[in-house]
Each structure stands twice: as structure tokens, then as C-alpha cells.
Design a protein that fits this description.
Blueprint lengths: L1 H12 L4 H17 L6 H8 L8 H14 L2 H13 L5 H17 L2 H18 L4 H12 L9 H10 L3 H26 L14 H26 L5 H19 L5 H34 L2 H12 L3 H16 L4 H18 L4 H14 L8 H10 L3 H24 L1 H4 L1 H5 L3
Length: about 425
Amino acid sequence: MIWVALVFFGLMLIGVPVGYVLGIAGIIGILQIGGEQFLSMAPKRFFAGLDLFPFLAMPFFIFAGEIMNRSGITHKLVGFADALVGYLRGGMAHSNMLASVLFAGLSGAATADAAAFGNTLVPAMVKKGYTRPFACAVTAAGSIIGPTIPPSSLMVVYGSLMGVSIAGLFAAGILPGLLICLACMAVIAAFGRRWNLPKSDKSPSLRRIFFSFRESILALVMPVLILGFILGGVTTPTEAASIAVAYALILGGVVYRTLSWSDLYEMLARTALITGVVFLIIASASILGWWMTFEQIPQAIASGFLSISESPAAIIGMILLLLLGIGLFMDINAALIILAPVLAPLTLSIGMDPVHAGVMIVLALNISLMTPPVGACLFVLASVTGERVEAITKSLWPFLIVEVLVLILIAFWADMTLWVPQLLGL
């Protein structure tokens, strides 16, 4: 066990890609168990880790998000958001946050949100008088709404691995995502004068809202269709994802005519690249996960938590600290795959609903997307805007604090988290 831990953290420290780190550490663990005779378990677990039908939803959702972004739908959503809240002080910051909610229903990925708005909204905000670090911080804070509000690829992974209803997780993610948006908008409103945020000279206009809504209505229909099909039990998440791709292709290629064959090739290549990286992490983590299960490490960790305290509130607090701490140093997909089998039984032992526990775990890991040193959204924004990660992080702290407060609220108030799933009978 010690050698596995040394190899795992040693490879992480020298910068080896996490997919390889997980696989190598898992293979060393297998060798320690039964020597070379057990090596045949590695390829079996590698492919078994991917042999889940719901995983097919991930590349479809990623591809649909790529199509909607490339076809210019992002600009229409931003225009609608700006029509709703752009007249407030810090209006473009408010619009950025609201647009993240609208875009979340199309992509389900934080990095896609960060890249799209980093290329479009951040330069626009800088031209209007916002500092670049602040514009990037607002974009990073809003980007984690993407994998919280459905469709969320991280919830697909969690639901598939732990046998939890993906539809239930999707439904339970709606309120937390909206709360994050409202909390961040409250920060912008509260500190708008202190930060001297620009105020638009435009006044509220029902006419502008109407025309912006008319321009973006076809894009807004897409998340409604996806959620309607899934939550209504008409389709599985994978089938709904394939419908989303077809709808996005028709919208971008036929209705708006903004897609070309070369765009299609680039989007397919990017989808394959993103999916390949995620699937490599999942497959490699399944090897390490098998070793951990064989060594009864999940049971040992659960016993360790319970030996400290048997209070459900204390256990939830320790789980949150563990997730936020691990998220500082590890890719969230790897962290989810490794920790979910450990933490899910522990949450069940203290009486947490599986859907409630899943949303809590996913949201905690989502927050780590915007925390250094390995926050993926920070590095995406730094690469597309040229801003330093340190400067973005400095402007990000107020948003990070309120998002952690939302996480705590979600973790300890089960009824609020489960209200939408119960309302829908999921």
C-alpha cells in the first residue's frame, strides 16, 4: 500500500498526466497483491471501467456543446442575458453570470463555458472598463454552473458508477446551479460601487428583451427538450444527448447556416480529444479502484471517519473538507472516480439520500475547477485571455467564498436539494 501511495503522489508531483498516474499506481497495486499472475486483471478492469451505456452520453453532450458554441449560439444567449440584466451596475458581469446558466443547459462542461466566454465576454468586458482579472474571475465563477445544472457530464459519471438515477441527479442540480448564479450576482451587486464597476447607460426595455428572446428562443428550447425527455422518462440520458446533437446540427447547419464541413471536422476532433482524455482517466482509475476495493481501503476510510465522530453533521463536514482539499491537487474526474466508491457508502451509513450525496460530491469537486494550483477553468482562461492565473485568483476570492457557502447549504439542507426531484417523482 505504501509503494502505491509513493508512486501515485511521486508521479503527480513530477507532472505525469493523471490518466497514466492512475493506471501505473493501479498496476503496482495489482502486482503487490498477486505478482505477475494478477496482471491480467489490469486490461480487464481497464475495459470494464468503460463498459457502461450511460457513458455514451458524455461525447454526445460535449459534441452538442461544441456545435452550439461554434454556430454562434453563445452570442445570442449573451444578448438575451444582457437584455435582462445589462442595465444594472456591473451589468456585463451580471450578464456573464446569467449567460453561464443559459449556456450550462447546452454544454454541461465548465471548461467549455470558460473557453467560450473567455474568447467573447472577457474582451467585451475589458472594452467597457472592467479589469481583465475581474472579467476572468466572473467567468471562472460562472463556469462551474455548467457541470452543476443539467446536463452535467460529471453527474453522468457519478450516476453510472454508483447506480444512482442520473435523471434524479440532473433534477437535483437545478437549484444549486441557480443558487450559485444568484449568490455571485449578489456579490457583484453588493460590491459594485466599491469596485467602481461600470454602469450601462441603457434602461430596462421590454421591447429589447422580446427581440433578444426571439433571437435566442431556438437555443433556449434545446435544454428544455433535453431535460423534458430525460425527466419525463421518455428517453435515457444517452438518447437525449444524441437528440441534442441532431437538434444542434439542424440549428447550426440548416437554420443559421453558420457551420461548414471544416467546422464539423474540427468539432469532431475536439470532441474525440476531450472524450479520450476523460475516458482514459475513467478506465485507468477503475484499475486503481479495483485494487482499493480488494484492500478494503474504502471500509478503512469510512471506519476512520466514524472513529472521529458519528455525528452526521461532522461526517458531512469532513467529507467536504476532503473533497475541497483533494480538488486542489487532482483532476476532478479522477477524484470523483476514486472517491465516489469510498464516500458513497459512508454517506449512506449516516442516512443521506444517494441523490443528495451525489449532488454534494459533484458540486464540491466543481468548485475545485476554479481553485489553484490545478483549477482547469483558471488555466483555460489564462490561455485564451493572456491573463496571469495569480491575478485571476486574487479577484476570484469573493465569488469562491459565496460558492463554498452555497455548497455548505446544499450539503446540510437535504430538503432543498431534493425538492425538484421529489416534485417530479424521481
